[in-house]
Amino acid sequence: MSEEPSFTPRVFSGIKPSGGLTLGNYLGAIKRFVDWQEAGTHETIYCVVDLHAITVWQDPAVLHSATREVAAGYLASGIDPTKSILFNQSQVSAHTELGWIFSCVARMGWMNRMTQFKDKAGENAEKASLGLYAYPALMASDILLYHATHVPVGEDQKQHVELTRDIAQKFNHDFKVAFFPETEPVIEGPATRVMNLRDGTKKMSKSGESDMERINMTDDADTIAKKFKKAKTDPEPLPESMEDLAGRPEAKNLVDIYAGLSGRTDEEVIAEYAGAGWGRFKPALADLAVEKLGPISTEMKRLMADPAEIDRILAHGADQAREIAEPILSETFRIVGLVGR
Ligand code: AQP
């Protein structure tokens, strides 16, 4: 084993353009990406992971527009292309090249344990695409292609970042190098798992069946208010402590969302609203969501009206990404024994 290298502190994370952005993507991912960028302690690289989106069927025209919409969501929320690298995955072919190598490093047994595949493929796994099964290996390549040291993600992605660590370890071990870092997943804050508004036991997702189960980042004020008003709850008022929210998933979810949007802790929210009924809490939550998401949604619409500018930003980001990725990929080829790169 060669000497332990030190890796540049670097954050990588991505979002799939598999539909419009949700409040879950905002609180669990984008808002925290902006915090990392502004902290200035790490280089920050953010990606629209379009190759992950096509692991399930995507209408080509819709995918094209969703890619720009996710980019607009990043920009409108505060990702600044002069501070962070922002690009879409398919423009940097090194992702798929390293992804193939990692498909040869990862073991079938590891992939078989991935709960997201089981959730997404459902009972009919035989009909799922090979890409959906293999995508955690491509995700490992997204991260390790930049030697990223930290990956901020929502709870649902923790297992995939752990697999990334396993792949890095096995690669380093098999080839007797210390080439890839053991990336840390960073899962923090009150809203790392925002739940479906109609069923507090399921995650809020872009591709969930009903629009009423999620808040989209482009929803207008009336729609946001209507969705929170109709959100499933129980008859009890808000309790005095977080422990008393145990077994009340829908109530806890709305408290988490309030805390995530207001930048407070769950405990602070409970302290303010202890004893409040839903008739008081839900309108307060809707007002807060409109206050926070309204300006972002307006800015997203402005950006979406100029797709050429979004494409220019993504192309520039892809150039910057390639500059970091290419030497790492070339060195990987050399380590593996592939000729010619
Ligand atoms: N409900 C959520 N709560 C907190 N974080 C979430 N994330 C997604 N949903 C929630 C985080 O957002 C980042 C990007 O996720 P993604 O779009 O690449 O994949 P996903 O987790 O599969 O998102 P969706 O919305 O559920 O998409 P579909 O429906 O297409 O599968 C990740 O950091 C994720 O944790």
Q: Explain this structure to me?
A:
The chain is mostly helical. The protein folds into 2 domains: 10-186 and 307-336, Rossmann fold, CATH 3.40.50; 211-302, Tyrosyl-Transfer RNA Synthetase, CATH 1.10.240.10. Helices cover 54% and strands 6% of the residues. The chain is built from 13 helices and 5 strands. The chain has helices spanning 23-39, 50-53, 60-77, 94-105, 108-112, 115-121, 130-144, 158-174, 221-230, 249-262, 266-273, 278-304, 307-336, and strands at 10-15, 43-48, 85-88, 150-152, 184-186. The strands form 2 sheets. The protein has a 3-stranded parallel sheet with strand order 1-2-3. The protein has a two-stranded parallel ribbon with strand order 4-5. Strand 1 (10-15), helix 1 and strand 2 form a beta-alpha-beta unit. It is globular. The protein starts with 9 loop residues before the first strand and ends in a 5-residue tail after the last helix. 43% of the residues are buried. The structure holds adenosine-5'-tetraphosphate. Adenosine-5'-tetraphosphate binds next to helix 1. Residues 15-16, 18-19, 22, 24-25, 28-29, 49, 153-154, 156-157, 192-194, 203-207 line the site of adenosine-5'-tetraphosphate (AQP).
